[in-house]
Design brief:
With about 80 residues, this protein is α+β, with helices and mostly antiparallel strands. The chain has one domain (about 5-80): RRM (RNA recognition motif) domain (Alpha-Beta Plaits), CATH 3.30.70. Helix content is about 25%, strand content about 35%. The chain has two helices and six strands. It has helices at about 15-25, 55-65, and strands spanning about 5-10, 30-35, 45-50, 70, 70-75, 75-80. The strands form two sheets. A four-stranded antiparallel beta sheet has the order 2-3-1-6, with helices on one face. A two-stranded antiparallel ribbon has the order 4-5. The chain is globular, with a radius of gyration of 12 Å.
Length: about 80
Amino acid sequence: MGSKIYVGNLPFKVNNDTLKEMFSEFGAITEATVISDRFSGRSKGFGFVTFENEEDAKKAVSEMNEKEIEGRKLKVNEARAREE
């Protein structure tokens, strides 16, 4: 497992800073990105968090998967390479 995790089913008002804040308790984060629509700029409801080390990423997945944030259950797991 790498140190990058996928975070899905995010509330639409979550931005990069909020996402980083949500996961910072698990360890040092090098990057937190919410994916947004290219044209409208609106969040697509998912993002990625990259931790400095793998153990922190594993802990974040186990603690945050299925956690309810603003009425939405987060989907958190290891980020996989994009399929062509």
